[in-house]
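pls design
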């Protein structure tokens, strides 16, 4: 398997056998696939749902260490810079700020470390907070396909 974060779009297309687009060079279209690379620990990635909604298909790729029976913390969050102290006070002690650079949109990156339980319910709770601009929980309905790399093989998971 490849080292995390080292493949370009063309290499990902070949490895996962999915036609992709490079959002730095052309916008998504209904005929293209969007791939979320779950092999790299990421920030909340607030643009992913927007790009996925504009594309014809949202494909999640991951290495064999990612599939689990149930989700566990942390869940990445992007918090609005405006009112950040108030947001952190309201969400404490379940949310901790990461010591990392701000997101491309200027948001602070944090982790939700509380109980996940029902992911859809937690996603709704996080979305309802005015200080949270995005989180790392994607609705199952958004995902068209999941491909998991294991060694030199790529397995498609049933949704």
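designed seq:
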């Amino acid at each position: 398997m490849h080292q995390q974060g080292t493949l370009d779009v063309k290499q990902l297309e070949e490895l996962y056998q999915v036609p992709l687009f490079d959002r730095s060079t052309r916008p998504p279209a209904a005929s293209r696939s969007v791939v979320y690379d779950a092999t790299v620990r990421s920030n909340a990635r607030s643009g992913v749902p927007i790009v996925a909604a504009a594309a014809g298909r949202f494909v999640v790729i991951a290495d064999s260490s990612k599939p689990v029976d149930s989700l566990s913390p942390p869940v990445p969050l992007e918090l609005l810079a405006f009112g950040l102290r108030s947001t952190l006070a309201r969400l404490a002690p379940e949310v901790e700020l990461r010591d990392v650079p701000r997101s491309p949109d200027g948001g602070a990156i944090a982790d939700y470390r509380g109980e996940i339980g029902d992911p859809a319910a937690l996603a709704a709770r996080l979305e309802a907070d005015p200080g949270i601009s995005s989180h790392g929980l994607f609705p199952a309905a958004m995902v068209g396909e999941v491909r998991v790399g294991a060694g030199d093989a790529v397995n498609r998971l049933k949704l």
